[in-house]
Amino acid sequence: MTATATGADPVPAGEVLRDEVVPARAPWSAVVSAGDVLTIVDLGGNQAVDFLVYDAHDTSLRYSAPDTIQAQDSVFLTTGSVLRDCEHGELMTVVADTCGRHDTLGGACSQESNTLRYGHHTRGQHACVENFLAEGGRHGLGKRDLVSNINWYMNVPVDPDGALGIVDGISAPGLAVSLRAERDVLVVVSNCPQVNNPCNGFDPTPVRMVVTHPSRPDEQEQTR
After folding, report:
1. C-alpha pair distances (Å), 100 with each of 1, 166, 184
2. By C-alpha distance, which of 51, 37, 128 is closest to 79?
3. pTM tops 0.85
4. DSSP calls for 51-101
5. Helix/strand/coil (H, E, C) string of 191-205?
6. How far apart are CA 172 and CA 11, in angstroms?
7. InterPro entries, from UniProt (predicted)?
8. pLDDT tens, 204-220?
9. Chain-wide mean pLDDT for the chain?
10. Does the pLDDT at position 60 exceed 60?
């Protein structure tokens, strides 16, 4: 079943530090300071957002899918999920989620995987690995720094026998996921360009990336 957006602005209250629309197929990155919140808004609906996160001061400490899955005993991410690094440390916590479920297993598309899965005619298509390398390179990251990534909004159900597949999404326009940084982190995103499977509804669309500094209780009281 496809989720339905509420129509309200999903961005949490606070000082807006960055508010940018990432075009379809494009990369994006930012350093998010400890305590600040990154909100990813699915503007068009069913747009997969490939996501990597690193300690901003030591990028050898980076998102670990095995540690994250083991700690929460689930392959899906939603409100309350903690993204952990390769030493089991906390990187970011999902503090709000209006979609309900996000993928940790599907990985990132690449020119090589496109060729293997969809045929040699797809070899020249731009892919998420190329986005990660281009954007990560701006922060000194290379191919050795790429690990299994998160796919926000991508629908990868797991059958009882362990089989999985990328199927039609459950997101909708305006749905959002918000993550609080537990320390200073570097976030690198590929707004997935894939057109050969349903992860984007075969039509990549823009997403909105908003970084906010939460209001303190006394600040919220003054604005009433």
Report:
1. 11, 17, 26
2. 37
3. yes
4. EEEEESS-TTSBB-HHHHHHHHT-SEE-TT-EEEBTTS-EEEEEEEESS--
5. ECCCCCCHHHCCCCC
6. 16
7. DUF1989, UAAP2
8. 999 999 999 997 655 55
9. 91
10. yes
